[in-house]
Design brief:
With 144 residues, the chain is an alpha+beta fold. The protein has four helices and four strands.
């Protein structure tokens, strides 16, 4: 989602803007990277990009498709009032984990820069590692 890293990796990429993947939710997997998993009623906010073939190859290499870290899936995303088919990187595992140091902070910063909804940014912040977070990186909640 971050503009500057995308510009470096994929110089021909054009951001089309914020989009939503409905009935999926954001997770950090045991591989320590972001992914999405199916969940009825949930929404993942992201950015839709138009890529050149060279950019797509560079992004596939960066996301380690060949090594199996992610698989590419074509899913329907909502972009404005349209549903569009887009390539989405889905992690090889659904098992929750903790993010690499400094990783989730970049995701939260990008979400803020794109103006994602405050409740979604708060959900992403729930994965930040800190003393008040549980073992999977999600914010610990006290129950009565």
């Amino acid at each position: 989602m971050s503009r500057e890293p995308m510009r470096r990796r994929c110089p021909g990429a054009q951001p089309l803007g914020p989009s939503r993947l409905e009935d999926w939710r954001f997770v950090i997997t045991q591989d320590r990277y972001a992914s999405v998993v199916p969940m009825q009623g949930a929404t993942v906010h992201g950015v839709l990009w138009r890529l050149t073939p060279r950019d797509l190859a560079a992004l596939h290499a960066y996301e380690r498709l060949g090594a199996g870290l992610y698989g590419g899936r074509t899913l329907a995303v909502r972009h404005g009032d349209q549903l569009r088919r887009a390539r989405v990187y889905v992690g090889r595992t659904k098992v929750p984990g903790r993010p690499l140091p400094g990783y989730q902070e970049g995701i939260v910063a990008a979400a803020r820069a794109w103006g994602f909804p405050a409740d979604y940014v708060a959900e992403l912040e729930g994965w930040l590692p800190s003393a008040e977070h549980g073992a999977n990186g999600r914010k610990a909640v006290a129950r009565r």
